[in-house]
Design a protein that fits this description.
The complex is a heterodimer of chains A (116) and B (255). Chain A has 116 residues and is mostly helical. Chain A folds into two domains: 57 residues; 38 residues. Chain A has three helices and no strands. Chain B has a single domain, classed as Cytochrome c oxidase, subunit III, four-helix bundle (Four Helix Bundle (Hemerythrin (Met), subunit A)), CATH 1.20.120. Chain B contains seven helices and four strands, in the order H-E-E-H-H-H-E-E-H-H-H. In chain B, strand 3 and strand 4 form a beta hairpin. In chain B, helix 1 runs parallel beside helix 7, helix 3 packs antiparallel against helix 7 and helix 5 runs antiparallel to helix 7. The longest helix of chain B has 33 residues. The chains are: A mainly alpha (116), B mainly alpha (255). At the A-B interface, helix 1, helix 2 and helix 3 of A face helix 1, strand 1, helix 3, helix 4 and helix 7 of B.
């Protein structure tokens, strides 16, 4: 590729750029996500399956989601009103989950009865 | 970051931008139109994926669970399989039981691609065209790698094991399709195809957007525009795809 003009060395205001990249918060979030995932694998092979393990998995997943949404998607640095606009509707999903899991269990019980 | 209204050029703007509170001059979210709409789209997409995963939970609770020690587990259409017994294959190691290793690799690839995407956005803030190009290329590479891994996993899932599963009518079923599978109830494979397939489609769309972003960056489109907001918007989408995978990973592979 021909390198005719040094156009990329200046920003819109005409100032030279190539400032130092601020990657520390990004790498910190990455370390958390990788660490949590490694811990999940450890649990998957050392802990017996059950409601307790599932609860731990779900809580850890929400932690990972926090790092992705807050740091990678930058939501933590947006205005409060935007943060709540995105987060509050998600609360509806809690009811969806509770209702449909209960529904599934009820249907299963109706089909299999005492076998469960 | 440059305000888009201040960089409007050409003959499109004959009159001064409206700035009154009720004229559209108010920005309560302090986010541009495009970014806001991307957030709202992602919110709706989150509902779609949540509905899929909730359906998985519902269907799983409707079926019988395997009771007994994990080491004595056997495949049957009567009970829901333990995920680590289904997803235990690794490319090049035929017949070796390596539970969840391949999906761990896929997860890492996607998380790393998310990090390179943040770095592309960060480089865009500094108006550093070369860095944006570099990190977009890495993101494209990791995204394509993830999709390749998924293709391998689907192929393995569809082909099945050497021994298959003996059915009551005496026939043997190998692998999986939408009507029968050797791993468990019919809906187990159906949900696998729909959920990971829908996610894979999102990854593919993301790769198309990234390809566009790379070409436009190389052509200097965003540099002439004075800001790299398009990279930010595509970045939001790409991180969302990673976010969804984190949940798919937990609900499909771990629990």
């Amino acid at each position: 590729m021909a390198h005719h003009a040094p156009e990329h060395d200046y920003n819109a205001e005409g100032h030279a750029v190539h400032g130092k990249a601020n990657v520390k918060p990004i790498l910190k979030a990455l370390a958390w996500i990788v660490g949590i995932t490694a811990f999940e694998f450890l649990l998957a092979f050392t802990m017996d399956a059950g409601s307790l393990r599932n609860a731990i998995f779900i809580i850890l997943t929400i932690f990972k989601a926090f790092f992705i949404v807050a740091e990678f998607m930058h939501l933590r640095h947006e205005t409060k009103s935007l943060i709540w606009t995105i987060l509050v509707p998600m609360a509806l999903l809690i009811w969806l989950l509770v209702a449909l899991i209960a529904e599934g269990s009820a249907v299963g019980e109706a089909i299999f009865g005492a076998a469960r | 970051m440059a305000n888009p209204t201040t960089t409007l050029t050409g003959s499109a703007s004959y009159e001064a931008p409206r700035s009154g509170t009720w004229d559209g001059g108010n920005e309560p979210f302090k986010a541009s139109y495009g970014k806001l709409m991307m957030w709202f789209f992602l919110l709706s997409d989150a509902f779609t994926f949540a509905a899929f995963l909730t359906t998985y939970g519902m269907v799983r609770h409707r079926h019988l669970a395997y009771v007994g020690e994990a080491k004595d587990f056997f495949f049957s259409t009567m009970h829901w399989p333990i995920p680590e017994k289904v997803f235990n294959a690794f490319p090049g190691l035929h017949g070796v039981d390596i539970p969840l290793a391949f999906v761990a690799l896929m997860t890492m690839i996607l998380i790393v691609s998310s990090v390179t995407m943040v770095l592309a956005v960060e480089a865009g803030h500094r108006m550093d065209k070369d860095d944006v190009q570099k990190w977009l290329l890495w993101t494209l590479l990791f995204g394509a790698m993830f999709l390749g891994c998924q293709a391998w996993e689907w192929t393995h899932f569809i082909t099945g094991s050497d021994h298959g599963l003996k059915m009551v009518d005496g026939s043997t079923v190998y692998g999986a399709n939408l009507t029968v599978n050797e791993y468990g109830p019919v809906l187990f494979a159906d949900l696998f195809f729909f959920i990971t397939g829908f996610h894979g489609t999102h990854v593919f769309s993301g790769l198309c957007l990234l390809t566009y972003a790379f070409i436009a960056t190389t052509n200097g489109t965003f540099h002439k525009r004075g800001h790299y907001e398009m990279i930010e918007k595509i970045g939001l989408y790409w991180h969302f795809v990673d976010l969804v995978w984190v949940f798919v990973f937990t609900f499909f592979y771990l629990i």
